[in-house]
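User: Second chain of the day. Same drill as before.
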Amino acid sequence: MSLLSLSPVLLWFLAGLVFFALELLLPGLIVFFFGIGAWCAALAAYCLPMSLSGQLLVFLAASILALGLLRSTLKKVFLGRKIDVDAMERGVPDGAVGEVIEAIAPPATGKVKYGGSFWLAAADQPIAVGTVVRILKKENLIVNVKPVATEGEA
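Assistant: Same format as last time:
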């Protein structure tokens, strides 16, 4: 049994599988749409008696249509979205507090845990590990902090 004696429907279906497999190896999310086009050609060949040129026309039209309509949407889904601005760039909310995880001994910096991230921190006074601090402002990648006054302190 030769490859040419197989049903055109099966050949288009297998071609679609090959395109989908190639998409895993090649970047860009383009070959995926040829797989969709091949499966549309398989469906068209199954439903209607078509010549090879008609099948190729369905393949090309479906591939280009799917590419034009779906690429930007699917690219966001499969490749993810990039956030250009981190949470600290949007501003620190009033009353934001963090915890010192590496002692701050001015003029050297230490580290503070805030918002699930670790930040270099500077202060006007030495601050020990474990101290809860209020974030005053952010300058580049360093946050300026001061210890949170505990009850009984003025």
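The chain has two domains: 3-79, 91-147.

User: Great, on to the next one.
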